[in-house]
Each structure stands twice: as structure tokens, then as C-alpha cells.
Specification:
The protein contains 21 helices and 25 strands. By secondary structure, the chain is of the alpha+beta class. Among the domains are: 73 residues, no CATH class; 231 residues. The strands form 4 sheets. The protein has a 12-stranded antiparallel β-sheet with strand order 14-15-10-7-6-5-4-3-22-23-24-25, covered by helices on one side. It has a 6-stranded antiparallel β-sheet with strand order 8-9-16-13-12-11. It has a 5-stranded antiparallel β-sheet with strand order 17-18-19-20-21, with no helix packed on it. The two termini are 47 Å apart.
Length: 663
């Protein structure tokens, strides 16, 4: 062992969590709404901009100073509210505090912040996931523009210097998204964060050339919403999702559903008065107008048309990079663009990058950061000097290796009645912190999805946990309305895993949401309206009690069953969806599926349905009627859009045409 090993063992991990009294942001949202609508009365807010007192404003703003000043995790999200207040309300705040104390409070909070992981100071903020990267950079850029001549307390640089520093990181982030797409693919919880930061750069930044690329990246996010929303809910496989993002895709509460509702004018939210969650920070930007009356950003007509379409369509897409590709593209190193891509995909211990991770942590003294502190146990001098860390992490198959959000090939089948989507052959056998492999969605947005629980002692909304992420990824493949999912669960505990591999998998299958439900031996069926779903398992299915599901999934009846499991280390699930138009009746669907032939050997799953034979060979391929299916896709391939990986532009062809420039 080296001296540095023992030294880093004693580095104190900085606090990450916040006092409960400092949660949450409803009051700030209300203050921002009042400032955005001078003199107007909101039906649920007991003051207007005219009746706001200095004391009321201070009580709302000061906790943000405490939180951000303490540098708790997600301080950047709080600062996002504060900087909007700084842009929108300076004049009004000076009116109610002529001594300038409220604006001074905001200025000191923002100019005292730490905006980047390389900057001075120890803390446990997460800087580097894809959404945090753009959040911190946009904050730094805009704070610098607000206070160009102020000396920032953390590093002694001026605001003008900070704007230039942040500009480069923003440009790098934009370039990576335009070239390679999103590592946090289709994330219902983090796309809104990206959109808020990008929307701010369109609305509050001084006009600049960079905004052309900002607009293009917003276009890409809008295109994802158009392709993957179903009945107003953004649903399907995700790179980063918490259980609630999968459970609650039907209750119109998530941020992303609010954005979809606003853009496609679905009428669930009151466009003027709804302001209670982060998504409003983006939709208020969509609603705002420049001095000439034009919008800061407007969703292209062609993308709106895709989102409104009820036509049956298949969407195939590829996003992100494999770790091997990162090396080929020069994206491993300590430069901001390199480390942003690596940490943006959540890769730390993988053989390809573990040496880079360790040298980066050493250079910037990051062992005190909660998210990186456990890396101290790999700070073993002889192993590092001999270059053996990659061998070690590969040989021991570190549990954390699976957390890296590598290239995702996504297959989505959407009809007017239902949606089924799968991550094709995504890292089978690995562990996943927040990935979701498959989701079936029925009318109203009611979702069914399957995972292998990371652990049975953590059934809350976190991840990796019982419902969030997965302990072991399956080999999952899909063709049109059928998905085949094969699991091989290890007998031994994965190295560094928090628990032994659970000996069952399960499906979120909430009786309360369905019109009809039937669970019989190894078959489960449900229907909503005209849409039918069948689950076929390799072993008998049973429901387990899951009291917390009622709360997490916003269910009303605690006595209705939710948690459908099957036991066994080698097992499969088959999803098949259909409609009353195709089947005649739910009973006919049940009868047909019950007669379908299924064969399951050591690695091969074969399923015959409606004259088609589906064959999945674990890790080796997928065949339909003897034809091997391609499981790696272009950047985008749908009935409206096609672009190869590495393309310089993306052409959208609908009634309207539109081009997204990718360079």
C-alpha cells in the first residue's frame, strides 16, 4: 500500500444531504410567477407583485442562500430559480428594499458559488451527470453576464472571466449532444433540467452565435418527446429514471408530462397559472416574448406534427457512445470536454477509464466528494503504478461497471392504442443504477415494466433499489408488438454490490390501473379500453405485498395488487400487445396467447405467435421467421426522420419539413 492510500482513507467526506426544513421550492415558484406577471393575481397565491413585502421576499430567498452556500447536492437546481429571480425581479426587489439588500443577497449567493468540479473548494455536489453539466455551465455563464465586473468570491475571477470560461464548457456540451446524442437517453426526470438550462440561454443570455446550437439541441429534445410520448406521457426505456418516473407516467404529475402537455396543448394544465414544478421554468420561457414580439424558442411545426400523429410507427434510434468508442474519438483525458463526456455517462470504474478517473480525482483532490469518495479504495500505489487497475476491474466484474450509460439502441413501437419499447440487447448481465430496459404503456399512460431488483431492503424511490435500475440486466429484444426478455441471474454476489443477487424478477403490474386483469400460472393479462397486454413467464407468477407501491405509484387502493414476480435464476418474460380490433375480444386474446408455443433452453428462447417465430439467443442475436434482426441502429430511423450516426444534419419530412444541423 502507498502512503497516499492511507492518507485518502482519512479524507472527510463532505455532507451531501440537506436539512428537511430547507425543502422544497413551491414558495420560490410562486414568487417567480408573481414577478413574471406584474400586478396580476394568481388564484392560489395570496399576494401580487404590488403587495409583496420585503419580509416575505426575504423569507423565501434566504433559505436558498443557506442551501447554495452550504454546497449541498443539487445546489445548482436551486441556483436556477435564483438566477431567474435576478433577471426578472431586480427592479421590483430594489423597490421593496431601497437599500438593495435583497439584490445583494442574491448577488452574493450567486457570485460565491462553485460552478465546476475543478474549481477550488471541497463539497459533495454532483457536477458531472449530463444534466448537471449544462446546469452548472449555464449558471456560471449567466451569472457572469449579470455581474461582469464583480470579483467572484470562490476563485477571485471576474464575472466577465467566468462567462468566457463557461462558454467553452457550454459549447463542448452542445457539440457532444449534437454529435452523439444523450447518454441520459429519454430521461423523464432529467430532460426537463436540460431544457430549463437551454431555455435560459435562449431567453437571458445576450444574443450570440452559440444560441444557434442551443436551439438545435432543444430541437433534438423536442423530437424525442414527439417520437416517444404516448397520450401525453413520456414513457419507455430510460438512461436515468427513478421508480416514480416509471410508476407515474399516467398521473400527469412529472415535469416532462407538463412540458408535453404545454407544447401539444393537451389541456391538463392551466397554461397561465400552473407553476409548481421545475418544468414551469421552461414552459415560461416558451411563453415569453422578445421586445419585437417573437418567441425566444418555438417548437418547429414538423416536430409538432410528429407528436400529434396517431399513425402506427416504429422508431429506431441510437444514442451515446460505447467506452471503446470514447478512446477512438479522443474523449478520454482530463480536458473539460473529455471528462464531461466520461462523467456525463456515469463511468468511473470501467477498465477503459478507471486510470483516467483516478488520476483526475488525484489532480483535483476529489476524494471528499460523496459521489467519488469510494474510489479511495482503488488508490493502491503498486497496482496503479503497474497499470493493473483495469485488469482488476475487468477480472472482478465490478458491480459499478454497469452504471456507465453506454450506447443505447432503442426500439419503440407506437400505435393509437398502446406503446411498447425496449433497449435492444443492452449490456446483458451488467448492473444498472438507473436504466430502464422495457416498458409497455396502455391508454391513459398506465405503464407495465420489468426489472431485476437490486435489493429487497430498499423499496423507496431511490436507485439502484427494488424498483429503480436493476441488479442484473436481461438480454432484451423486440420486434413490433412482441418483446423477449431473458435473464441469467448469478449465484454469487457481484463484486462491490450492496447485496446478493435477488433470486426473482418482477413486473410492475398494478391491478388498480386496468379494466380487466387475469393472472393464471405463468400468464398474466390486462386490458384498458381497446388495448391488451399479455405477459408470459418461464415460471409460475405470484403477487408479493408491496405497501410502498401505493404511495410511490400514486395508487388509491392499498388492497389491489401491484408486484408480480417470478422466481428462478434462468428465466424469461415475453410481452405481447394487441387490440380488440385485432383480437375480437379480451377473452379471445387470452385464449390465443395461452395456446402459443414457447420453448426455453439454456440460452435460447423461442416464441410463436400469429404465424411468426421469434428466436432470441442470449447475447448472440434475435431472429424473426429465420431472419436475423439488426439490433444496432442509425442515429434515428422513423417514418418521418432518418439520420446515420455521425450525420451532419437531421432531415424531418412531414407536411412541414425541417432540418436540424448537427455540427
Amino acid at each position: 500500500m502507498s502512503k497516499s492510500f492511507f492518507r485518502t482513507l482519512h479524507v472527510k467526506t463532505m455532507p451531501r444531504k440537506w436539512p428537511p426544513k430547507m425543502e422544497y421550492r413551491t414558495e420560490m415558484s410562486e414568487l417567480l410567477w408573481v414577478m413574471e406577471h406584474p400586478g396580476e393575481k394568481h388564484p392560489d397565491i395570496d399576494y401580487t407583485s404590488d403587495t409583496l413585502t420585503a419580509e416575505r421576499a426575504y423569507d423565501i430567498i434566504h433559505p436558498y442562500k443557506e442551501y447554495i452556500g452550504a454546497r449541498y447536492d443539487c445546489s445548482d437546481f436551486r441556483a436556477t430559480y435564483l438566477i431567474k429571480l435576478a433577471f426578472d425581479a431586480k427592479k421590483k426587489l430594489d423597490e421593496i428594499t431601497p437599500d438593495g439588500s435583497l439584490n445583494t443577497l442574491i448577488r452574493e449567493t450567486l457570485t460565491g458559488f462553485k460552478f465546476w468540479i475543478k474549481s477550488p473548494g471541497r463539497d459533495s455536489m454532483c457536477y458531472y451527470s449530463e444534466n448537471h453539466l449544462i446546469s452548472f455551465a449555464a449558471l456560471e455563464y449567466l451569472t457572469g453576464e449579470l455581474y461582469p465586473d464583480v470579483i467572484f468570491a470562490n476563485d477571485g475571477l471576474t464575472g466577465r472571466e467566468h462567462t468566457e470560461i463557461a462558454k467553452k464548457r457550454i459549447e463542448d456540451w452542445l457539440e457532444l449532444r449534437l454529435k452523439y446524442g444523450f447518454s441520459e437517453f429519454l430521461s423523464a426526470c432529467y430532460y426537463p433540467i436540460d431544457l430549463v438550462s437551454l431555455g435560459y440561454l435562449m431567453r437571458y443570455a445576450k444574443p450570440c452565435a452559440m444560441q444557434t446550437k442551443v436551439r438545435a439541441v432543444i430541437d433534438l429534445l423536442m423530437l424525442d418527446l414527439a417520437h416517444h410520448a404516448f397520450e401525453g406521457s413520456f414513457c419507455g426505456p430510460q438512461g436515468r429514471a427513478y421508480p416514480g418516473n416509471n410508476f407515474r407516467s399516467d398521473d400527469k404529475e412529472p415535469n416532462i408530462d407538463h412540458i408535453i402537455d404545454y407544447i401539444w396543448d393537451l389541456g391538463t394544465y392551466d397554461k397561465k397559472y400552473f407553476c409548481s414544478i421545475e418544468s414551469w421554468l421552461f414552459t415560461s420561457t416558451l411563453e415569453a416574448r422578445k421586445s419585437d414580439g417573437t418567441p425566444y424558442y418555438e417548437v418547429p411545426s414538423a416536430i409538432l406534427e410528429i407528436g400529434r400523429s396517431k399513425e402506427k410507427q416504429i422508431v429506431k434510434s441510437s444514442t451515446g457512445l460505447d467506452l471503446k468508442e470514447m478512446g477512438e474519438k479522443g474523449l478520454i483525458g482530463h480536458e473539460d470536454k473529455q471528462i464531461m463526456f466520461q462523467l456525463g455517462m456515469g463511468a468511473l470504474t470501467n477498465p477503459e477509464i478507471v486510470d483516467n478517473t483516478m488520476s483526475f480525482i488525484d489532480e483535483f483532490d476529489l476524494y471528499s466528494n460523496h459521489f467519488l469518495s469510494n474510489m479511495r479504495y482503488l488508490n493502491i500505489g503498486p497496482l496503479r503504478k503497474m497499470g493493473l487497475l483495469p485488469v482488476l476491474t475487468k477480472k472482478l466484474k465490478f458491480f459499478t461497471n454497469g452504471f456507465a450509460l453506454e450506447r443505447a439502441n432503442i426500439y419503440a413501437y407506437r400505435t393509437k392504442d398502446y406503446k411498447l419499447a425496449t433497449l435492444q440487447a443492452y449490456k446483458p448481465g451488467s448492473s444498472g443504477a438507473q436504466q430502464t430496459t422495457i416498458e409497455a404503456v396502455l391508454p391513459g399512460g398506465a405503464a407495465v415494466y420489468t426489472n431485476h431488483p437490486m435489493r429487497t431492503d430498499k423499496k423507496d424511490g431511490g436507485s439502484p433499489s427494488y424498483w429503480g435500475g436493476y441488479g442484473i440486466a436481461p438480454y432484451a429484444v423486440q420486434h413490433e408488438n412482441v418483446s423477449l426478455i431473458t435473464y441469467r441471474l448469478p449465484a454469487m454476489r457481484r463484486f462491490l454490490a450492496p447485496a446478493k443477487a435477488v433470486k426473482f424478477t418482477h413486473a410492475f403490474f398494478p391491478e388498480e390501473k386496468f379494466d380487466r386483469v387475469l393472472v393464471k400460472n405463468n400468464l398474466a393479462f390486462c386490458s384498458i379500453g381497446n388495448a391488451f397486454l399479455a405477459l408470459i413467464a418461464s415460471s409460475p407468477l405470484e403477487y408479493l405485498p408491496c405497501p410502498l407501491c401505493t404511495l410511490l405509484a400514486d395508487l388509491k387502493d392499498p388492497f389491489r395488487r401491484v408486484d408480480l414476480i417470478q422466481r428462478g435464476r434462468r428465466q424469461f418474460w415475453i410481452y405481447e400487445m394487441s387490440t380488440s380490433e385485432e383480437e375480437g375480444s379480451f377473452d379471445a386474446f387470452v385464449g390465443r396467447i395461452s395456446e402459443n408455443a414457447v420453448a426455453f433452453g439454456k440460452n435460447v428462447l423461442t416464441y410463436v405467435s400469429k404465424g411468426r417465430t421469434y428466436r432470441s439467443d442470449y447475447g448472440k442475436g434475435f431472429w424473426v421467421n429465420g431472419e436475423k434482426m439488426q439490433l444496432e441502429y442509425p442515429r434515428i430511423d422513423s417514418r418521418y426522420v432518418f439520420a446515420e450516426r455521425g450525420a451532419e444534419k437531421m432531415e424531418i419530412r412531414c407536411k412541414s419539413n425541417y432540418t436540424i444541423n448537427l455540427k
